């Protein structure tokens, strides 16, 4: 039984983490913090939450925990990570702070100086399916962004394959509204979001773009450019990405299926769907699963993928990473 | 062709008013005001709105208009009403400021001193169906609240009848989320409002209670007490009220139907539904209609009523009142 | 470890049961049946379901199971119950067949002759909170209807109290659309159900009325009449009931709270909410909980209650009953 | 004042047509037909509809109308068109029957023999913006499909330009659920469609593909191949298409904007959005508008377009075509 602290327990990701860890057989939540709600209980914020008193992050007893989950805004996360690591606490960060290796890229896209650039090199990029060897030996894991998870998992087999890919790869992604965070804004107002659907920051302008391209280039140097178009979808949770990969000749669908099937055959949380089935949110919401559908049309390979943005796209994958770090069964506490 | 100014053009009610007046054959919008968005155009706020530049309310040219619609917070509305009336502009107020005749009741429920109590007596309570005689001769009309409209129209015939009514009358009302206003709040966040349903201020605590009981007592002195339970419904617009009136003996349904049918037979915007049909939001959204369903069960008369809170519950009824004030066809510009 | 069979595994209730039992530490699902989908797997119907092959109910191996859950239409359920009982299998019925003790009442409301009236007397009405003594000794439990559960739990303490209650009690109930079943109908079409809200079978016409009144009269002979008004709510799951109990004098709120608090203090799945809090669907969806809010207004006691119709209103309570029948921890497998 | 008959008045498209024509200053609805509901009134089906008695299509008095709108299934539409034309009635068809010029293509994609291939040549493809010259002289217009309208309008300027386009063009389209028709199906059940999002018939398998490519090739012979991916969006109405056009070099955004701005400057129903704005459903629902957003990213031109599938995607464009056919103001009756 290890002990966990959750920094930033009141956002959607923090609350999802509480729900998962509550049922985890090997973890006990020692505390959850909140800047705005310190002193209140979590169920004053979420009626179905446990009666957990929130504490101020500055007063969190670091010596009482083995692992810290950081559901904090970027910059704040890095600062807390430093404190935790100095106190001997292993860190599962859910912010963007340790995802991008190149500090200039980070500084440009996130508009401030990285508070702890010396940690970038050792932080493990925690797309669990390709981080299993590194995780047990690290004290700092960067949980990937929700969109990157939904786009990288379906791209991994084809990028690792010998298929020649024409530029650009197009990822048309649609995210449920919890992806926009809990702070109420005009575009998340029920009256304006329901019955609506809208693209935003499309092309090459969303902060998840450099994160995705970084990993694509790890897997295939000189990867094609990515065109990434996020859309706001009127559902509470889930991301569906439709990804267009143009090859230099028409691929054989059976071969592609065989490539993907083999690639993910031993994975607990990645399912390649059988012929004729496409990814939908109904496959994955409230689970840590990623499902991948395969369609071939002309020279194009169309990958449809679905995840729950709060699970495999955030809290679920964070726990999956923690499981590997601490030597627990990788599926422990997860569905 | 008369000229209208809209004070507070950017809330949901203000925008609905713009949409109605744009198509009104006898009205031209001269200006719309906004505190927060002065200088911007309305379609920067609502993508489907016309390209109407918003002006500061303090700089509104009162001499250019015949009628002012006030979609302002209470207190601010009364202050603007005074200015307009002094400038010879007729006022259709959509706030709560002139609905309640008794200034102490108003002060208590709205927690401040009424800015213009001398106007309370002359203001006409604009439930159009019972205000037609007074409207042409007034310069100040108070458009009823959305819940009161949805509850008073179905209650009017029975309160005006000879049926003996046991205390209390119960109004279980469910409102779409636009009723909570455009300012984003936690409980109107899509993620928290969708898949949810919640009562609030139930019993005898909502500000619309004294307004409804005031009118009930005009119609039947010593009316029974009202228990009024509003609920937040995950739809953008519409109010459905289910109203329970217990009589001292089992009413004859045919007689009640005949009472209601006769009462509203000449009304353009109030429809008594045929036997076997109950009120639904689908009857009324995007129209100025109120539909009323009648059910008898034991000694209870159950009235179901539906309106669009932004139309008959606000902007639509405001225009209906203006039509009567200025001698236009009462249905002009309305559906 | 006991073995369970699910009859009618493809409806919303059957699928919810599969999800619960899959994670239950003491139960193994031996089979699930389906008339229309025999031979297919459950995940062909629900993409997130397990890969469970559905069998024809007539070919179900009754000797392989200890308990049968019946998620069948009425009449079919009673017939299957007889077969199971004859084969020595204990039965948790989720249909209406064994809820009503009086066979004439059943025949009238359900429009056919009860197929097994001799079982009515011994069947236990499984509102778990008041059936704990009888459950271990029965082989046949009738899981209450969803609306009855949401209305009876909040009524139980007041009916068992000494308060004098005026007639009628009014239950204004709102149910998510899964309550209407999985078969697609016009009123469950997304285009017609979203943005809509509608009452149906209000007054004294819904089949759950005699079930509720039967139990009310067990608890308080000569209970007041019930007016029961169901409404269709545009959410997938959850029931919120707002219940109006008029007393012969204004109740003291503290006393009522104390009555309810004491009554349910040891219950795992019934929570009486603290002052100022009302029941909402957000309290209960995806859990087996029932929450109850208390409001006093004049002589009226207003009880707001919320349950998940597929959990405490069906599959969850069925498992809770099974837990008690078989001597497991009552909360086993439930949240 | 001309007289219109609506064949198939009870589907979503037929009802939308009734709503538009009711307010049209130059058209009177003489009858609406229905196979399943003949003898009933339209407001028995749609509570907000007018009290219009539906007649059997076989008994429709063709001599009483000037124009027939066909909201019928394919094949049935062509057969009715023949009867109407023979009776001297002009036909606005909303089915797929006269959209595709090549009869073999039609037969293959629609799986039956075209009932009236001799009419294919003279039928006008009614994408109004490029059919204005032909419409006044035809008696038969084929209203384009909803997806084709949403994809062709944004593609028209670039296909008519000198830009070199790489293959394939990708259209990732998302449609509200009314696009799936009124007949209830499992995938349009509220419980299964809400909180979900799903691609279907993606790649080169949807029936609208040959229609779109036919028109693309009219505009630019040897147009690039189209990859067309429809998705089911949990909103009642609206289509948003995100279209990826890869050019052989990075386009200058100002030049592209100038091309599009000039192209559509005189159009009433096509709006090219200003820089920084993308198309959303909120721009267009309940209007006949198409809005187009322009984004340049690398060599890619990303066009976002939005229409209301029941208006510009069906009934609205049908009326727009009728307006041009009969010499009315093109915007008459439309918003």
Write out key terms for the chains shown.
homotetramer, 335 residues, alpha/beta, Rossmann fold, Dihydrodipicolinate Reductase, domain 2, 2 domains, seven-stranded parallel sheet, seven-stranded mixed sheet, 9 helices
Walk me through what this model shows.
The structure is a homotetramer of 335-residue chains. With 335 residues, chain A is α/β, with parallel strands linked by helices. Chain A has two domains: 121 residues, NAD(P)-binding Rossmann-like Domain (Rossmann fold, 3-Layer(aba) Sandwich); 162 residues, Dihydrodipicolinate Reductase, domain 2, CATH 3.30.360. Chain A contains nine helices and 14 strands. Chain A has a seven-stranded parallel sheet with strand order 3-2-1-4-5-7-6, with helices on both faces. The first copy, chain A, has a seven-stranded mixed sheet with strand order 9-10-8-11-14-13-12. The two termini of chain A are 20 Å apart. At the A-D interface, β8, β9, β10, β11 and β13 of A face β8, β9, β10, β11 and β13 of D.
